[in-house]
Amino acid sequence: MRKIAFIIFACFAFICMQAQEKEEHLKFMGIELNGTIAEFQNKLLAKGLTVSPESKLQPTGVRVFDGAFSGNDAQIVVWYNPRSKEVYRAKAIIYTYGKDLVEQMMKKMEIKLDAKYGTKSKYSEVVKDDFLHEFMQHEYNVENGTIGLFIVSTGYSAQNKFYLHIDYKDWFNYIKNTQDEMDDL
After folding, report:
1. Where are the domains of the chain?
2. Cα separation, 154 vs 161, whole angstroms
3. What predicted TM-score, i.e. pTM, was given to this entire model?
């Protein structure tokens, strides 16, 4: 009787363990958007990034790094919950001068994202910014988050400075952060 009870208990425990899948988080630069900002920062520093002097100018919950992203010099912005310190979003910002050049950079990044995440999860639209530039913008809705790909301009001229944004949001931690913010209301 004890043997049967033990076997039933062992089977039940095994089924429960299988049912509790490990929580998968969206990855940015190969690092899960999970854990504390200190842990995330250490992983970015290990990849050769440095904390940007601009980080001191940011509000609590935002940290800025300088380094390379997908072969380009970039500024990396990381958002985290100020209370729990848990990371939920990261963005790479690559800048260049000239509309044509930034659109070429965006097309290369789009090809890379299409190869990694597929096009089934992709939504694209043409947007016009405040300076009347028209750009494509893309959003990849993947199982554990979203990845936005868009351009921001700084003036009316096609020769101005343009910023390519690659914005990663982990849904699980983003929702936890939003719920925490709502608790203040």
Report:
1. 2-183
2. 6
3. 0.86
